[in-house]
Design goal:
The protein is about 45% helix and about 15% strand. By secondary structure, the chain is of the alpha/beta class. It folds into two domains: about 160 residues, 3-Layer(aba) Sandwich (D-Maltodextrin-Binding Protein, domain 2), CATH 3.40.190.10; about 240 residues, D-Maltodextrin-Binding Protein, domain 2 (3-Layer(aba) Sandwich). Strand 9 and strand 10 form a beta hairpin. Helix 10 packs across helix 12, helix 10 crosses helix 20 and helix 20 runs antiparallel to helix 21.
Length: about 475
């Protein structure tokens, strides 16, 4: 040993070996945890078909290339097929029919409301387990987590949460001497008289303050307040109420709290006919209905009013509640309109609520039940997981200009321009509710309002009737469109 060490060359070699061993040991000790699962090489070339009605090739082509550039993904090709969504019925029917004959897409898009009815046609992404599942739940906003998962299984990935905020006409406010849009509904009450303008008869509006108050019936075949069926539950949320209790699985909007509710925070009372004056839905509906009541100081809208989007883009409506995508619609219809977006007025700043929705992408059940699809399933799982990463989510937010579903990206958007920041902030407190039969459940709100305004039904009775209808749909379980 001493002879070995006496040779200077051998000493140098020994020192280098020791240093290499120490460096390797330190790297193993302090190496960072992987941020994505390691699937290894894709064994053979595979092409994934992806049905995507919105934000297709122009949005995802670069992201797909970046995914393919990751070692192990070179053999994965992803073909986006643009589909017409319409009202969803034909689109979903095509998915189901094609899956039944083994020719369906590998990945497809669904709306967040539709997971309960369509999850039997989907495969959960098994990469979201353990710490990866925990990270997912912590990284995405509450609404996105709730509506993409079922029993701790992630069925789909979204990059955004659309939510409702307040569009306003800058010229109308300036002419009325109003410097700022309302931060609360009480602020709006003060402004209404200055913003509403009647014609010479005093019966019709030539300028409206805000589009609120009516339901399914208007002058045409469509409701004259676009997405009123989202605004009504939004006001219930703001009033401190729920539409559906996810913990107990019960109808919530027509129930009066009993002691069990207070102690356990669960809805347990099954009596829909005992609505007291503190009921949040009653308060929300009284407020909403007052804007279409000619006897009210809030009177700003009626069933003879034009379509809310038309009225706003024509410069005759001061305020309109709508989603971020409406920004592009307004610009297309009237590029000269001077308008902006403000935060949605709230009843209580400590209980901020708005309404949200999104579309999301998940895997076909065929990838699980067909053994020959094993390679495609591995590739699809890996790609969808990739879509959930912060880098990709940030790219998608930049491309779509939509409010992100991921919190760290929202933090970036909150530092951006006014519109981006407002909608990004709204994604944090956006809510929705369970719709076992989407179109039927949304029609409940139209029928409830129309019974009050056209049949003279007392508000409490109409709420009670709506709750019974909703309970019936819940008891029947999820149904496809």
């Amino acid at each position: 040993m001493s002879d070995f060490l006496s040779n200077k060359r051998n000493v140098i070699i020994l020192i280098v070996v020791v240093l290499l061993l120490l460096t390797g040991g330190l790297l193993l000790l302090f190496r960072p945890e992987p941020t994505t699962p390691q699937l290894g090489q894709v064994a053979e070339p595979v092409t994934l078909t992806w049905w995507k009605p919105f934000y297709g090739k122009e949005t995802y082509s670069d992201i797909i290339k970046d995914f393919q550039a990751i070692p192990g993904n070179e053999k994965v090709d992803i073909e986006i097929i643009t589909k017409n969504y319409g009202d969803g019925k034909d689109y979903y029917r095509s998915i189901i029919n094609d899956i039944a004959r083994g020719a369906g897409p590998d990945i497809f898009t669904i709306r967040n409301d539709d997971l309960p009815a369509y999850k039997e046609f989907m495969s959960p992404n098994e990469l979201f387990t353990g710490q990866f599942l925990t990270d997912y739940k912590n990284s995405f906003v509450d609404l996105a987590v709730r509506d993409t998962t079922d029993r701790d299984q992630v069925f789909a990935i979204t990059s955004y949460v659309e939510n409702m905020q307040l569009y306003y006409n800058k010229d109308i406010l300036a002419q009325a001497g109003i410097a700022l849009p309302p931060a609360s509904w009480r602020d709006l009450d003060v402004q209404l008289n200055s913003l509403n303008k009647r014609d010479s008869s005093g019966l019709n509006f030539r300028q409206n303050a805000i589009a609120l108050g009516t339901g399914g019936l208007g002058t045409g075949s469509e409701p004259n307040i676009n997405r009123f069926q989202d605004i009504v539950p939004l006001l219930i949320f703001q009033s401190g109420g729920q539409v559906y209790d996810y913990q107990s699985g019960q109808v919530a909007f027509a129930r009066s709290a009993n002691q069990d509710d207070i102690d356990t925070n669960l809805v347990t009372d099954s009596n829909f006919d005992n609505i007291d004056d503190t009921n949040p839905t009653l308060n929300a509906l009284n407020f909403y209905n007052s804007f279409a009541d000619s006897r009210s100081t809030r009177y700003s809208w009626n069933t003879s009013s034009p379509n809310s989007i038309d009225q706003f883009t024509q410069g005759k409506l001061a305020y309109m509640i709508h989603y971020k995508f409406m920004d592009d619609v307004i610009l297309q219809r009237n590029s000269r309109l001077k308008y902006d977006v403000a935060k949605l007025p709230q009843l209580d700043q400590e209980n901020k609520k708005t309404f949200g929705f999104f579309f999301m992408d998940g895997m076909s059940v065929e990838l699980t039940r067909n053994p020959q699809k094993a390679v495609a399933r591995d590739a699809a799982e890996k790609f969808l997981f990739y879509l959930s990463t912060p880098e990709v989510q940030s790219q998608l937010a930049a491309k779509t200009k939509l409010p992100s579903a991921r919190k760290d990206v929202i933090a970036e958007q909150q530092q951006a321009d006014n519109k981006t920041a407002i909608f990004a902030d709204g994604a944090l407190y956006a809510d929705n509710y369970y719709k076992p039969q989407v179109e039927a459940v949304e029609k409940i709100w139209a029928d409830m309002i129309d019974r009050i305004q056209f049949e003279g039904q007392p508000i409490k009775e109409s709420i009670s009737e709506a709750a019974k209808e909703y309970q019936l749909y819940i008891s029947q379980g999820p149904r496809i469109r």
